[in-house]
Amino acid sequence: MYLILMFMTTIMLIIIVIMIMLIMISKKSIIDNEKLTPFECGFNPMSSKRLPFSIHFFLIAVVFLIFDIEIIIILPMILTMKYTMIKYWIITSLLFIIVLMMGLYHEWYHGMLKWTN
C-alpha cells in the first residue's frame, strides 16, 4: 500500500515539474482577441449584432440547396435506367428536367441569381 502511494506521489510530482517547465520555457504569445474570434458569413463579430443583412445571401443558399438536392435525385435516375422500361424512364427524366429548368428560369427572371443590384 505504501509503495503504491509513493509511486503515485512520484508520478504526480514529475507531472507538476514538467508542466511548470513547459510554462516557463514556452514561447509567450501576444493574445490577439481579433484572431481568437470566429469569422462567420462576413460578419465582424466585434460590431453591433443588429446590423441589417441582405436577404440575398440566404436566397443564394436556398437555391444552392435546391439544386444540390436535385442533383442527388438525378444520379439514381441514371443508375436505374437499365432496370426500367426506357419509355417510362425518358418521360420521368424529361419531366424532372423540365421542372428543374422552369425553376431555374423563374429564379433568373426574378433576379435571384444576380449577386449585385
Describe this structure as you would to a colleague.
By secondary structure, this protein is mostly helical. Helix content is 65%, strand content 0%.
Q: Which features characterize this protein?
A:
EC 7.1.1.2; mainly alpha; NDAH_ubi_oxred_su3_sf; 117 residues; transmembrane; translocase; membrane
Helix-strand layout with pairing:
Elements: H1 2-25, H2 33-36, H3 56-79, H4 86-109
Summarize this entry quickly.
By secondary structure, the protein is mainly α.
Rg over alpha carbons: 30 Å
Q: Which percent range describes the beta-strand content? A: under 5%
**Continuous helix count:** 4
Order of helices and strands: HHHH
* Beginning-to-end CA distance, first to last residue: 79 Å
Helix content: 55-70%
Characterize the largest beta sheet: strand count, sense, and whether it forms a barrel: none
> Which structural category do the helix and sheet elements fall into?
mainly alpha
> Which overall shape is indicated by the principal axes computed on the Cα atoms?
elongated
- Ranges with pLDDT <50 over ≥5 residues? none
